[in-house]
Amino acid sequence: MEVSKNFSLAAVFSDHMVLQRNKWTAIFGQAEDGALIEASLFDGKDSLLCRNSCIASNGRWLLQLEAQSAQTGCKLVINCGSESKSFCDIAIGEVWLAGGQSNMEFELQNCKEGPAELSDDEAGKNVRFYYTNKIGWMDDKFFEAERKTAWQTWENPARGAWSAVGYFFAKKLAADLDCVVGVIGCNWGGTSASAWMRREYLEEDRDLNTYLSDYAEATRGKSIEQQCKEFDNYEIENAAWQEKFSKLWEKQPGITWAEAEKILGKNPWPGPASCKNPYRPCGLYDCMIARILPYTLKGVLWYQGESDDHKPVFYYKLFRSLIDNWRTDWKDENLPFVFVQLPVHRYEADPDFRHWCIVREGQAKVAATVRNAWLTSAFDLGQYSDIHPVAKKVLAERMEANALANVYQLIPSVDAAAPQIEGCYPNNSQDENGPEKLVLTFANAPLGFEVRKDETRFEEYKKMEANQGNTVSSEFSGFEIAESDGIWHPAKFALGGTDGKLNTIILCSDKVSRPVAARYGWYNYGPVTIYGKNGLPLCPFRITAAGKVCGEAGKSDDTGHAKIQQIMTV
Known about the structure:
- The protein has 570 residues and is α/β, with parallel strands linked by helices.
- The protein has helices spanning 102-105, 114-118, 140-147, 164-177, 199-203, 209-218, 224-251, 257-264, 283-292, 315-329, 355-369, 393-406, 455-467, 546-552, 557-567, and strands spanning 8-9, 18-20, 25-30, 36-42, 48-55, 60-65, 71-80, 83-100, 127-131, 181-187, 299-303, 337-341, 373-377, 420-427, 437-443, 449-451, 479-482, 488-490, 492-495, 504-508, 517-520, 530-532, 541-544.
- 29% of the residues lie in helices and 23% in strands.
- The strands form 5 sheets. Strands 2, 4, 5, 7, 8, 9, 10, 11, 12 and 13 form a 10-stranded mixed β-sheet that branches. Strands 14-15-20-19 form a 4-stranded antiparallel β-sheet, with no helix packed on it.
- The longest helix has 28 residues, at 224-251.
């Protein structure tokens, strides 16, 4: 039999790989048209589990293997003519893709809990990791590096570079499900969600198309050669700057970024708009996501949004489109997404732009409107003046509980879900001469709430506001209410008790006689004080009592809703 030219499997197939249990499993690669490909899967005793075949077309081939139960020690053999490829030490278990930007990329060796974990040779014995080739431009260097990628076990010395969030999620899940869990790392620090999407999903929406038009304008008139040269020069410049910064850090540990730039000059990151720049729209979809499609997954872990704060009002549509894109390409309309709502964050010297508030709101809206997409609250896990909180285990285990409840349905969903705003209405039992109250109702809070002190973060918040010449009110509570004039005032709050319901919070202020809107935690960084009885923080929100404005003011619906929209501006 002849050997088929160009016969290969996608780089994601290697020894030690994890295949998804209880689902038909995609095996795929390249071969010349008409080549017959046959795949056979064997168990740990070399007994045949299943076999299937296909014919290559358009230079590619894909076949499906029957669903199998969890097990280890398996072998996969792929035959094409007289050529054979064999992979050993395969586990059949759970496979999750860990996507997003730097907080998902954040390495195990650098996180707070990492050193203790890495010192234990047994800690991650049931976790395996594959990092998708991380080069943002497909040239010879790209393909050479991709061929060297492979699944890693806990014995691999490179385990310290695994995603900390992905690892702790997988470790806990492996223990709860009693099977091996594989993580596919597909993340890159500083990236917009637009980098992880196909072009047509950005083109079809006017707002999302601005990601493409901005890039097109920035590269207008530049040839591919010129763009590549500019980016290559940037990489040299950036490497030199980073080296100088490392030396400066050794002399002055803890020096701020602003202080470093005064000494070294402005850091050139993220470089020029270029076809070679990984931050370009669609670039990492082509160079990373498409390279592992359609590897069979259980679900997606997603931690991203920080780098889309320059267009926060678009984030809902952007993230929703990304989910649609991936589900379409994986041919799984119910592919689970377990994602992180951004924590509190603000650099010490910055004004409170409140753009992260809008991103968080978009993330909450995705959870409310997109099936099989579940929000994991990290609101209370931010780190002062640092976009990269070093503690990752708590967040990862919140995500795991979220998956355990909603994907695997092994624990009650209320145990894993943070309280979220549900409704808002005026309290009709207020004192005749006192200010009117607003009653807020919440999902995921059947047992009510508890208040926790967050004095350290409150002091940090006051310090940052003082830097901007602002004074924090002595009545600050995290809750605010507004009348139709759109001016927000700190609100007093009372937990629960309305009609015997524990999932309510009542707000009022002596300065607001007829409140029409409420918000909580509406700052980029500040104290987090309200928690559900399950220990998860109340998600930040803003909401209106829309009917109250329209009805009581005697205005038409259009006028009333226009006023509401004015109130709801940041």
